[in-house]
Amino acid sequence: MASAMLNGAENLTLIRAIAPNPKGLGFLSSDFRGKNFPTLTPISRGNISIRTARSRTLTPKCSISAPRPASQPRFIQHKKEAFWFYRFLSIVYDHVINPGHWTEDMRDDALEPADLNHRDLTVVDVGGGTGFTTLGIVKHVDAKNVTILDQSPHQLAKARQKEPLKDCKILEGDAEDLPFPTDSVDRYVSAGSIEYWPDPQRGIKEAYRVLRLGGKACLIGPVYPTFWLSRFFADAWMLFPKEEEYIEWFEKAGFKNVQLKRIGPKWYRGVRRHGLIMGCSVSGVKTSSGDSPLQLGPKTEDVSKPVNPLVFLARLILGAMAGAYYVLVPIYMWIKDQIVPKGQPI
Fold first, then answer.
1. DSSP 157-198
2. 302 or 71: which carries more pLDDT confidence?
3. For residues 281 and 261, is the Cβ–Cβ distance under 8 A?
């Protein structure tokens, strides 16, 4: 959650529910290791609080670190590597990745802050991939008003095969350079994409630009783990932002009423220990027309720049190996959930 470092002398207070039958995610911050795992409500920027009927105050021991630079070495980070990674992963994505990290219940919960409350809303699903998130969007919005954008033609080919999405517009494009006019859409949604952005701030700035006045962005992404081994693989693989980083990026882009909501499959009690590829849903409202007030320099990554093919291949293979760890983590957590009673910490 946001730190006082991000907002001057703000004080942070967390209020945790004491529930007899806890459900959902269990940790109140990126570094908090609790014993009980209650349901959490959305977190908003500022004097942060999480409230229910019965509660007690906790003082978090977590602290914010400076955002990790985009240049920090990761085995799968560059867009070219992600392109080829998904060239093969797209074959099994819906059957291997989603069951452990991005279930239908999680999707519907994560999309709730987007306020998809009218069939005529215009929506862009950035990094929409195989269209799994889009299937949740078209429950509330007419498919003809929805655009799916992704850099991977292989992922988009899977989306085209889904009957509920046949009326959606499908485009290849870059999340950091969206092919939409300023002030042109009502809702911006992006799920499981930010971890591949070389410059997350630029992608969120683009979300602000394309939204109309009063429009809302909803970005769903991974959370940074606290367990040392999970941190090692997360840092080696791709970007796992901390909660306070998400909030800072949204606020710098110009969004107001920024909120963060924790999500996860039920067996991820203790999710902040191992991290999640889909671990939080962050939303914000555009309150002024036009482009974001934030000024940025050149792009961090130039995809037209040639790369050493041997280095590229080595990074891709090592990144895939690191990513395999996060395929195994949900299996491990699911088995633990079967063995350890739900009311007990794991």
1. HHHHT-GGGTTSEEEE-BTTB-SS-TT-EEEEEEES-GGG-S
2. 302
3. yes
